[in-house]
Design goal:
Ribosomal Protein S5, domain 2, four-stranded antiparallel beta sheet, ATP-binding, Ribosomal_Su5_D2-typ_SF, alpha+beta, amino-acid biosynthesis, 9 helices, globular, GHMP_kinase_C_sf
Amino acid sequence: METAFTDVSQPRKDDLESAVSVATTARLHFGFFDPSGRTARPFGSFGLSLDRPWTRLTLQHAREDAFSGPEAERAARYLRALAEAQGLDSAYRLDISEAIPSHAGLGSGTQLALAVGAAVAALEGLDLSPADIARTLGRGARSGIGIATFETGGAVLDSGPRDGALPQLVARVPFPSSWRTLLIFDPETKGLDGEDEIAAFEASPAYSEEARAALEARIVERALPALETGDFGVFCEEVGYLQARMGDYFAPRQGGVYTSPRVGAVLDALRAAGVTGLGQSSWGPTGFAFAQSETEAQRLLRIASDADAGAALQLLVAKGRNEGAEITHSRAGTTRRP
């Protein structure tokens, strides 16, 4: 795995025509093995890279700082923090053409931070890995899913933090190309973040070593092999089981098993129709449900639309993404992966 974003032909700092574009996608976070973070092996998580929604941005040198597009203010903070940490004194133009919805449980903050960091590293010729960027910008302290999907895509399992180090990638399995994921968005609801998220973890009860080990064993021994062999039923059963444990555990902190009652109602309708691989990504409110084919995904889409009953939810069918972020240097005309 490459850990640097440097290109073979780096532009001079004063070359205002050179630009770096980065595109990265959302991820699903299925849950932690130790959601309390208090066992001997805290956290540890399982997740999946999606082929949509995207964050896309372009960075170039400028005569004065200029930031535009969705999430521009947050991206500017990331860029300035990284520039300060690296001792850079350049001015930049950063244009964001598309951004993963924020506070929706799709890892938008980590993907934006890594995309900004990757762009800076490529433009300035810095040898920075995604982990280096995440550490500098305060991302990935509990879960390494976003870092791993930025690097490799696919379904990924991380170790959880160890001795002050960021979580490490433990396993990565490609997601079957024919399988689909129905995403259920509630634009009127936001998941926990920032101080509220920290407070929620601090208020949560301890998790037992036995429960943590049992959850990890089910994913390692059943869910990951099911992905490798294309056993849709077993994979869905295990994701559904992990989701049920997370829903019960976090319900007191997020106001119920699901952050959004409207998303919950749609998931209940899908469950009643026989769907087992479903749940809420991270703190939500985004819900998801797996389908074994495009035809089945369209059937689930119709069920979800009927269950929505005018609640103004947004529905989208996505695929798994088995590649990492795309990093393109305009001068060299090349696409690099982290």
